[in-house]
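Q: Given only this backbone (108 positions), what sequence would you predict?
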């Protein structure tokens, strides 16, 4: 079965890899993927809204210099995975490597 392919502006063909999974346990909720995604594939939600994740990560308050409140820990979720165009920007920007991408078979 053939894979979905794209063309570069120069006419070269490539196989895009679409986002198929986001590891929420490793996600730090930085929002970088949300900012670079041209298709609104992601949504930032509160960590305690995700089943099986701890609501708050235990940080030492003296070392907490990042400007984020531990009271509202956030995590990214796949909101519209079918809108992914396979650019891979989210995976390149993610500091924790939370994303899994895969090519998709072309529909006949």
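A: Predicted residues:
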């Amino acid at each position: 079965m053939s894979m979905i392919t794209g063309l570069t502006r120069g006419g070269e063909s490539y196989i895009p890899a679409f986002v198929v999974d986001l590891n929420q346990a490793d996600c730090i909720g930085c929002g970088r993927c949300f900012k670079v995604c041209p298709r609104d594939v992601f949504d930032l939600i509160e960590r305690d809204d995700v089943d099986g994740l701890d609501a708050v990560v235990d940080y030492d308050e003296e070392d907490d210099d990042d400007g984020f409140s531990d009271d509202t820990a956030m995590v990214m979720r796949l909101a519209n995975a079918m809108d992914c165009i396979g650019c891979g920007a989210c995976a390149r920007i993610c500091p924790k490597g939370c994303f899994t991408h895969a090519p998709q078979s072309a529909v006949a």
